[in-house]
Structures are given as C-alpha cells and as structure tokens.
Amino acid sequence: MAKWEIEELRSEIKQHYLSRFKRPRIAKYGTLNKGFEEQELRVFLAHIDNEKHRLLFEFMANLGLRVGEAVRVNIKDIKPESRELIVYTEKARQPDSLRIPLPLFKETLDFIHAHTQEIEQHEGYIFFKDFKYSKHGCNHLDLNYVRNIFREYITDAGLDETYDVSEERNSRTPRRLHRLTTHSLRHYAITRFARSTNGNVVLTAHFARHRNPSTTNTYIALDKKELYDVIDAISVNEAILLKKKISEEKI
pLDDT tens digit string along 121-171? Predict the structure, then answer.
C-alpha cells in the first residue's frame, strides 16, 4: 500500500471515530421558542431610536417578511387604496400580496412623506441606504448591516441570549447561536397569526407564504403557559382519581 493511501485511510478512520463521539447536533427548532414574546418585542422596539430601522423591523414583525424581502420594500409595491404590499417571495420567486395593518400603514405614509427626496434618490426603496452608492451597487440597506444593527439593539435591550455554539468545519471558529435573530420577527408574526385563527395551519401557511403547511408548523411557537397549565391540570385530576380509588377500596 502506497504512503498516500495509508494517510488517506488514517484520515477516514479518524473522521469515523470523531463522528461517533462528537456532541450531537441540536435540532433546528425543537421546543425552543426562537420567536419574540409580546413583551420582548415591545422592549426591543422601544430601544430603537432610528425611525427607519424601527419601521423596517415593524414590517417584519407584522407581515412576517424575511430580512431580504423587507429591505427591498419599494414604494411602487404599495397599493394605497387597498393597503396591499406586493412581496416578491425569496424562496418561491413569485409575487404575493399582504395587507398592511392600518397603524403600520399610517406610520409608513408619514415616513414616506418625511423622506420623499431620499426615497426618490434611491430608486423608490423605503429602507434606503444612508449613502447613495455602495460596493454592491444597490440602494437599499444591506442584509448584513441589518443583522448587525439588530444585534446591537437586542443587546442594548438586554434581550441577547445564546443557547449553543455552532459546529463549524474546516477549522472555522465556532459561532454563538442566538435565540433571537432577525428571523425571530418572522416567527413572531406567524405565531401571532396562527393564534388569531385558532390554529388554522392552512390559512397561516398562506400568510407565511409556505407551499407546505408542515413547514409552517416549525414556526409556530407553543404557548408554554397553556402547555404547563394542561400538565398541571392532568396531574391534579390524576391525584383526585387516585384518592377516590383508594377510598373506594377501603369501603
């Protein structure tokens, strides 16, 4: 056997044993709620002093927009007469429409009125950059910029929470995994919509723009208080039945 073949075999054996004993991967969602709670969202928004940033995150929290969809909201995609927003869904590559809630719609009109000139200079993008050109040549906010300012606001609000570190390959430094990310705003929106429809997953899937309703289920956070109340109720009922059974046996 050639030397290079021995080295290759040694490498394969090493990888085999490492894979057997390495720490198991955490499930993508599991029971961990990766969405905002109502109180968390209020605290988060209250710590945003930039009106454009706050409006951007409100769009995501109300309409369940992905960050790439949110930064591309353009004035031409808003229909004032019906309050509809045309969304070009990232994954499906097709246009969808969502109705903007009235308070958010009024706030959006006020922002457009106050920043008409900047929006026009940036080809109609509502969430325009603070400078005309960039290395990417686009006029809306960069995704990484949005993710970075989100992390700053979350930290300032005292809501930053990590639950694990990533498993990186090729000697890359592991990253801290945060419970709340920009995508948590989409989780919040979908969960809130599901609760408002009494758990109608089909309707919620349309809101979330998911082709498969089973995907929607991974976004809907369980109400832990309701879950724990049920568990407590079951425990109490079982205790009552057990006590009754013991009393009957004594008679």
Answer: 999 999 999 864 445 568 999 999 999 999 999 999 999 998 888 776 666
Q: Does domain 38-160+177-217 have CATH number 3.90.1150.10?
A: no
Instruction: Kindly state the tokens that stand for 27.
Output: 């499930």
The answer to whether 152 and 182 have CB atoms below 8 angstroms apart is no
d(CA 166, CA 25) in angstroms, rounded, equals 9
pTM confidence score:
0.74
- Residue 113 to residue 119: CA distance in whole angstroms: 10
- Read out DSSP for the chain? --HHHHHHHHHHHHHHHHHHHSPPPPPSSTT---SPPHHHHHHHHHT---HHHHHHHHHHHHH---HHHHTT-BGGGEETTTTEEEEE-TTT-SEEEEEPPHHHHHHHHHHHHHTHHHHHHTTTBSSB-SSS--TT--SBPPHHHHHHHHHHHHHHTT---EEEE---STTPPP-EEES--THHHHHHHHHHHHHHTTS-HHHHHHHHT-SSHHHHHTT----HHHHHHHHHHHHHHHHHHHHHHHHHHH-
Residue with tokens 């930053």: 160
220 contacts 194 by C-beta, under 8 angstroms: yes
**C-beta of residue 52 within 8 angstroms of C-beta of residue 111:** yes
Alpha-carbon distance of 3 to 1, in angstroms, equals: 7
Asked if residues 127 and 75 have their Cβ atoms less than 8 Å apart, the reply is no
